[in-house]
Each structure stands twice: as C-alpha cells, then as structure tokens.
Write a structure and sequence with these properties.
Layout (H helix, E strand, L loop, with lengths): L1 H35 L4 H6 L9 E10 L2 E6 L5 E5 L2 H11 L3 E7 L2 E6 L2 E4 L3
Parallel strand pairs: 1-4
Antiparallel strand pairs: 1-2, 2-3, 4-5, 5-6
C-alpha cells in the first residue's frame, strides 16, 4: 500500500516539475523573441492603458413621436434624451453620456454618436 502511495507522489512531483520546466521554456522563448525584435518586455507588460482606450458602447433605439425623437437605451429601456433632429440627439447624448459611444439605427441607416457627432456606417 505504501509503495502505491509513493508512486503516486512521485508521479505528482514529476508532473509539477514538468509544468515548471514548460513554463521556463515558454518564458525563455518569449524573452528570446523579444530580444531578437528589440522589444522591451517591461514596457509592454507594465504599461498602463490610457483612460480613453476602454470605450463603452451603448445600443440605442429611436422613437419618433409628434416630430420629436426620443432616444432610449435599447438594452435597459432607460430614457437618454430627446431632440428634434438626429444631429441634435447626437449632441445631447454626448452631453449626458460623456465618453460613451452610442450605436443607433435610424431611418434604415446604422450610425454612431461619437463626441457629439454622427458617424454613419460604411457598407
């Protein structure tokens, strides 16, 4: 019984050592490739992402009632803004939801509200 337990322990230790060796080999390969291509790994690994790189996108829905556009968050049904034109809606959306892109389909055209302006999809 003790022999079987000893074999299992030795197999487990061998497995752990094999994993450590593979990690060592992969890290060595990454360092070699970075060195050959003049890449500073510390700069790449520990560089902080700029604040504006994580951009949130909100899916919007437009409803037109008596000439007024009502803009809602399509996923939560939250009212966002109202406007007379889609351009005004883009500006109002930007005023209310800073640093958020708005994705909307209006008059069979897909467009985004980006920084208070409209960018239409290119098909």
């Amino acid at each position: 019984m003790f022999e079987i337990l000893a074999i299992f322990i030795l197999v487990y230790i061998g497995f752990i050592l094999g994993q450590a060796y593979q990690i060592f080999k992969v890290r060595s390969m990454i360092r070699r490739i970075a060195r050959d291509n003049d890449i500073n790994l510390e700069e790449v690994l520990y560089e902080e992402e700029p604040e504006n790189s994580k951009q949130e996108i909100m899916v919007l829905e437009a409803e037109k009632i008596n000439g007024t556009l009502l803009i809602y968050n399509k996923l939560t049904n939250e009212f966002i803004c109202q406007a007379e034109t889609i351009e005004e809606a883009a500006r109002t959306f930007n005023d209310r939801k800073k640093d958020v892109y708005g994705l909307i389909k209006y008059d069979e055209t897909e467009m985004m509200f980006v920084g208070g302006k409209i960018e239409k999809s290119k098909k």
